[in-house]
Amino acid sequence: MVSISIGGHLTNWLYKLLGIDPGQDVLRADRLFFVQPWPLVVAAAAGVALLVWVAFFYLRDGTRPHWTWKGLMTLLRLGAFATLMVMLWQPMLRSYRTETTPPVVALVIDESGSMAIRDRWRDTKRKADLVRALGDPKAAQSTRTEALSRLVNKDDAALLKRLMDGRSVRVYRFGNEVAGAELKKPGREKDKPAEKGGKGETIPLAFPKPQAEQTRLGSALDYVLQDTAGQPVAGIVLLSDGGQNMGEDPALAAKRAGEAKAPIFTVGFGDPNPPRDVSVTSLLADEVVRKGDEVVVSVSLRQRGFAGTTVPLTLRMGNKVLRQVRVPLAKEGQKQELNLSFTPETAGAQTLTVSIPAQEGELSLSNNQKSWPIRIVDKKLKILYVEGRPRWEFRFLKNAILRDKTTLFACMLVDADPSLGGEGNVPIYAFPRDKKALFAYDILILGDVPRDFFTAVDMKNVREFVEERGGSLITLAGESFLPWQYRNTDLEAVWPIPVPPTRRDILFREPFQVQLTDAGARNPMMFLLPDVEQNRNLWHSLPGMYWCGVAERAKPGATVLAQHPTQSGTDGKIPLIATQQVGEGTSFMTMVDSTWQWRFRVGDKYFYRFWGQVVRSLTPHELPGDNRFVRLTADRTTYALGEKVVLRARLLTPNFHPVRVKEALVEMQRTDGQRFPVKLDPVPGAAGVYSAEWLPARPGTYKAVLIGQNGQRGESTTNVLVEASSLELDEPQQNEALLRRVATLSGGKYLMYTEAAGIPELLPDRRHDVQSRVEHELWDAPLPLILFLTCLVGEWILRKRNGLL
Questions:
Q1: Within 10 Å of residue 507's Cβ, how many Cβ atoms?
Q2: Are 476 and 447 in contact (CB under 8 A)?
Q3: How many whole angstroms from its chain centre is CA 594?
């Protein structure tokens, strides 16, 4: 291969002569290559031979034609020969091309629900800055998204147009999820009217009303980094109020952006000062209550900017006002809890609502109320109480249950004469050894009963009573037999507190008070007074006890409601009262036997209230006395919109054997009449149990109806309440600290509204030049062939004209 250096002018002349379009990005072309060098030798020899032949041919007749024609024909013959030799050498022109890749700018836009807020602007400086940036005195009255839209699109100096100058802009929108798209440069469209703020030019970005219930800021930044990996990223422009309530930590994503040399420039929207707000944060009550029973409703409040203000709190059931109290609001940021009570007079499915009226200066009213679905039943609860001997706890608990005339109560003492029919309002002559007879009860209470009273089948039936039938078991420890004699039995399997390997109980010389755990202080079973703090103090001042059974810990998954104030086990203080969901039912256990002493000087006030709430809370989810062979439940009563409802159905034959079918069908009925079918699949390893997850599309109250195999509806029902999430309103102010931290960790900058237009000047120049080598084959171009043919045809014509052919 032979190469010859050439200059730029000669290169351009060759491009033009040969019809090659070099493009605008050619850097230089400095070499002409001859791929086949051997034609040089052939050309030299052939040239000499050609000259000899031409001389002989044209000089043999010296008279004609004239020497002028002879010379011209010789030149044409030599030109054709030279062109042929050049084509045989296969010359190539090598040039170098430089292509410039524009840098990528990621424009990340927050579309979460908090961006729809119209700020009340406690920060007047930030308000004035927004007005100056948008040039409109009314700009401060717009929503955060409207302000963002005008900042991005408002005129020829808009942020978006300046970002697109020499850069590739990708827009990412985030809320619950993240979505991205590459933008084209905006152009004028004569046939379409200008959109608002466009002055005859289309707006490239549309901003729908933000409705996302979550803000995943960290996840959005992480998505952008993954989507732009391997590309020249000039920076990330984040337009947000800084809310973050789900997903990855934004600080971690910002550090990764700094490592990738992708600085984040943040512009915060909204008032950084917390707005004034009063919110009902939670509402709890029993899911199933009985007509005529007192129902305790637990309410939690929180306020900002209204400390010391007294507000009216209203409890409604449907449209009926049940209670209305005036509540002095606690200190800012402090969670405030209180209890309300009422007595339902009619049966049926109802919805409880707790609400606070709008207060002056509140930013949002959507969190001023909460709802909770309940079922009021007018059927008697069937309770069976089995006790070993007539101890004091038995005597007073028996009397407490007998006082409730809506209860069918069977009560038997192991030491008593069975022919007497027990001590309840329903006669009983022996423990129900038959499963069907045992399953007829809703709640089973076991006291200090000796182990030999029960057969292995009895204990197995009790276990299935809880796990399969969905009944509730209340176990009262005693000084003689229970739980010590029941280690490694079916009864221990359903207790929330395990039986220790060796018996250990303590008889104290000085009395001790049962101490509530944090979970116990929030559990309705443990409410002796409506006010949470007063209730906790009351438990510390109740008459003390002198004996307790000792277990080192509770079982995994159990909820410890009360513990010993001083005695410790392997996992903290020893549990005294605990509860646990076991299969389809609930198990409650107490390791003390002297709650009857709470009657000292106050009578039945606290003793009856405690055990009444325990019994009421442990009422099975199914309607008492309803079809005991079919049961439908949801894992919770209330859900936030976007959460999946977990439905679970248990189907048994009249002989309490599991029903085995391919699927069970449930119909979700909303109060507006819409219906949604849901198919439940069999649960592996749980015969007769079916489950499914269902995602509601809209908030509202839903009634889940299990449809029988014959198409009949209503064999079992349950109610669920789906509420719009309030996560976006919990902390609605601009999180300026987080936005500044994200910018700093990434190497970027936090900017005010008036500074946003200067972001393009802050972006580093990340243009990427790629140089490539381009080789053009000159011998294969049309011009050499045309030149060769022209010389041959011209020489032939001249020879013909002069009579040489």
A1: 8
A2: yes
A3: 47
Angstrom distance (rounded) from CA 390 to CA 415:
8
**What are the tokens at 561?**
């409601």
Please check whether residue 585 is in contact with residue 622, taking contact to mean a CB–CB distance below 8 angstroms: no
The helix-helix angle for 250-259 and 217-227 (nearest 10°) equals 20
Q: What is the share, in percent, of the chain residues with pLDDT greater than 90? A: 32
- Mean pLDDT, the chain, integer: 82
State how far Cα 656 lies from the chain centre: 40
Give the count of alpha carbons within 13 A of 215, CB side only. 29
pLDDT by residue (tens digit) across 61-73?
Answer: 555 667 677 777 7
Q: Each residue of 509-533: pLDDT tens digit?
A: 889 999 999 889 888 889 888 777 8
- Closest Cα partner for 147 from 272, 273, 269, 274? 269
Whether the CB-CB separation of 742 and 221 falls below 8 Å is answered with: yes
Contact (CB, 8 A) for 692 and 665: no
Q: With H, G, I as helix, E, B as strand and everything else as coil, classify residue 450.
A: coil
Whole-number Å distance between alpha carbons of 247 and 659: 41
Helix, strand, coil percentages for the chain (3-state, nearest 5):
30, 30, 40
| Residue 25 burial (CB count, 10 A) | 15
Pairing of strands 310-317, 348-355: antiparallel
d(CA 172, CA 76): 69
d(C-alpha 326, C-alpha 559), whole Å = 33
Section 472-493 average pLDDT: 94
For 336-468, list the strands marked E by DSSP: 336-342, 348-355, 369-377, 381-387, 407-413, 443-446
- Report whether pLDDT(662) > 80: yes
